[in-house]
Design goal:
The chain is an alpha/beta fold and 185 residues long. It is built from six helices and six strands, in the order H-E-E-H-H-E-E-H-E-H-E-H. Helix 4 packs parallel to helix 5.
Length: 185
């Protein structure tokens, strides 16, 4: 098994340009592709993605749904519903569960690579540092189980977000290594 540091990759870039099995949309629970990441996915991926979302309909906050990726390089879009329409904002619990559910959906379909944005930090206004802690911990925990996923990318829109995720990931790895060393002694 590869090291977690080789399987969780953090970069600055355009999520919609990722050539992976699935990209994750920071979604509302009605799966309406509006602003932010969802808007970019809709613009570049085309109407087919929204049409599939409409067929699925509403899902509970904290869950995720999967669709095709239209004209995107990715093969699928996983819609992580961390918030609701009408001002229901992302919470730590909804971010944790929608991230975990997105990873489970990918693994259930034997996907090998998935790319996440900083879910909930745009339109919903969730704090970037807390987002990084939650999402990276969920990713690390998932990769320690039996899964088809080989690579998890976190694709951040700007340098500040990338730096927060990178710093958080370094701290999380240090804590994990210390815990593992302590449990072996």
């Amino acid at each position: 098994m590869d090291l977690l540091s080789d399987r969780i990759l953090i970069q600055q870039g355009d999520l919609t340009e990722m050539d992976v099995d699935a990209i994750v949309n920071a979604a509302n629970n009605d799966l309406m592709l509006g602003a932010g990441v969802a808007g970019a996915i809709h613009r570049k991926g085309g109407e087919a993605i929204q049409e599939e979302c409409t067929q699925i309909g509403s899902i509970p906050i904290g869950y995720a749904a999967i669709t095709g990726a239209g004209k995107l390089k990715a093969r699928h879009v996983i819609h992580a519903a961390s918030m609701g329409l009408g001002g229901v904002r992302t919470t730590a619990k909804s971010l944790r569960t929608s991230t975990a559910h997105s990873l489970r959906l990918a693994a259930e379909r034997n996907l090998k690579s998935i790319a996440f944005p900083a879910v909930g930090t745009g339109v919903s206004g969730f704090p970037m540092d807390e987002c990084a802690e939650i999402m990276l911990a969920e990713a690390a925990q998932h990769l320690q189980s039996d899964t088809s996923i080989e690579k998890i990318y976190f694709v951040l829109f700007d340098g500040k977000a990338r730096d927060i995720f990178q710093s958080t990931w370094t701290t999380l790895q240090r804590k994990t290594n210390t815990k593992n060393a302590t449990s072996k002694s």
